[in-house]
């Protein structure tokens, strides 16, 4: 079966599964009283979201994981030898870091505070290290692709360090972005769509299918998460999305395109770093509030306008990243 047709089928399947089980899952979260605790220092409109069901990210994690297992079971033995290496790192990051986020959300709902940052970092580093070692050993990776130039040999040790940084940074970047209805989910759709095309440039057909599953599941999540949100993804989804996106980038070798396709996540992270650094060094803030989406809201942009404009930037960045991948010499 052609990869494009298979990817489309998986995308639609993920979307339909998410739509079917999204409503009952929201009702389950409400019955269990798993509601968001909103930080006091955030914008005032955030208080209206107090108690909205969280851990919504588990919806797309479970949908993608079920489809992954389904495909694995149906594939003949020979094709599994290709399917597993191309997708095991992204699915491992999705489930592994998603579990960390779920525990954090549960602790936050139960006790009013989440897992300490350094404890999260330890788990993210473990996942990142496992991902980097597997990719390096299985694909015999010694370099990464520089857009428009070609492969740049950096050695296995430096690749592992780069992988750790990418997974930790992108995981936290998406988490910072998850502050408005539909913002993190929508921008992530474009990022995964971009890496579906980037994977196609590397002829990693099963990674294309995996990214398509992520797109379909995230679109189903957005069905319930657009303003006014019926649930929010929480750390369960945000941490998992970032780690999975980085895992896809590392698998393709185009990790340098990760900040392009994920430009919104990078901008949100940089806004926090600059804000904190400026306040500590100069005693002055650069933005009205960080992360960046809060700044635009406080200068008068409605939440929906901020979200849609960030989506547009993410879509453009995703197109640019895909074109750069196809324009890069692979061999």
Describe it.
The protein has twelve helices and two strands; from the N terminus they run H-H-H-H-E-E-H-H-H-H-H-H-H-H. It is globular and about 50 Å long. The chain starts with a helix and ends in a 5-residue tail after the last helix. It has one domain (3-326). The mean pLDDT is 92. It is 73% helix and 2% strand. Helix 1 crosses helix 2 and helix 6 packs parallel to helix 8 (234-252). The chain has a two-stranded antiparallel sheet with strand order 1-2. A hairpin with a 3-residue loop joins strand 1 and strand 2. It has 331 residues and is mainly α.
Give a short synopsis of this structure.
The protein has one domain (3-326).
Search tags:
globular, 2 strands, 331 residues, mainly alpha
Largest sheet: 2 strands, antiparallel
Trace the largest sheet across and list its strands: 1-2
> What overall geometry do the principal axes of the alpha carbons give?
globular
According to DSSP, the number of beta strands is 2
Total separate domains: 1
Span from first to last CA? 26 Å
Number of helical elements: 12
Overall mean pLDDT = 92
The secondary-structure class comes to: mainly alpha
Helix content: over 70%
Strand fraction equals under 5%
Rg computed from alpha carbons, rounded to a whole number of angstroms: 19 Å
Low-pLDDT windows of residues: none
List the secondary-structure elements in sequence, H or E.
Answer: HHHHEEHHHHHHHH
């Amino acid at each position: 079966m052609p990869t494009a047709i298979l990817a489309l089928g998986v995308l639609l399947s993920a979307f339909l599964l998410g739509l079917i089980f999204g409503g009952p899952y929201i009702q389950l979260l409400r019955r269990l009283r798993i509601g968001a605790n909103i930080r006091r220092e955030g914008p005032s409109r955030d208080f209206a979201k107090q108690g909205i069901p969280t851990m919504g990210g588990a919806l797309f994690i479970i949908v993608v994981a079920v489809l992954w297992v389904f495909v694995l079971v149906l594939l003949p033995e020979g094709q599994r030898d290709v399917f597993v290496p191309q997708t095991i790192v992204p699915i491992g990051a999705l489930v592994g870091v998603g579990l960390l986020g779920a525990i954090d959300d549960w602790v936050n709902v139960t006790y009013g505070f989440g897992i300490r940052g350094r404890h999260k970092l330890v788990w993210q580093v473990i996942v990142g290290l496992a991902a980097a070692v597997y990719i390096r050993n299985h694909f015999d990776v010694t370099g990464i692709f520089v857009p428009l130039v070609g492969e740049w040999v950096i050695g296995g040790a430096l690749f592992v360090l780069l992988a750790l940084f990418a997974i930790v940074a992108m995981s936290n970047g998406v988490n910072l972005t998850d502050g408005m209805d539909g913002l993190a989910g929508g921008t992530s759709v474009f990022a995964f769509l971009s890496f579906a095309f980037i994977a196609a440039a590397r002829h990693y057909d099963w990674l294309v299918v995996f990214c398509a599953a992520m797109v379909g599941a995230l679109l189903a999540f957005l069905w319930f998460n657009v303003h006014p949100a019926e649930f929010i993804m929480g750390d369960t989804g945000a941490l998992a999305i970032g780690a999975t996106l980085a895992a896809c980038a590392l698998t393709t070798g185009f990790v340098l395109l990760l900040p392009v396709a994920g430009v919104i996540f990078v901008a949100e992270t940089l806004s926090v770093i600059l804000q904190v650094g400026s306040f500590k060094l100069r005693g002055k803030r650069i933005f009205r509030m960080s992360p960046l989406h809060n700044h635009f809201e406080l200068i008068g942009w409605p939440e929906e306008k901020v979200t849609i404009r960030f989506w547009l930037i993410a879509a453009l960045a995703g197109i640019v990243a895909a074109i750069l991948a196809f324009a890069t010499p692979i061999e």
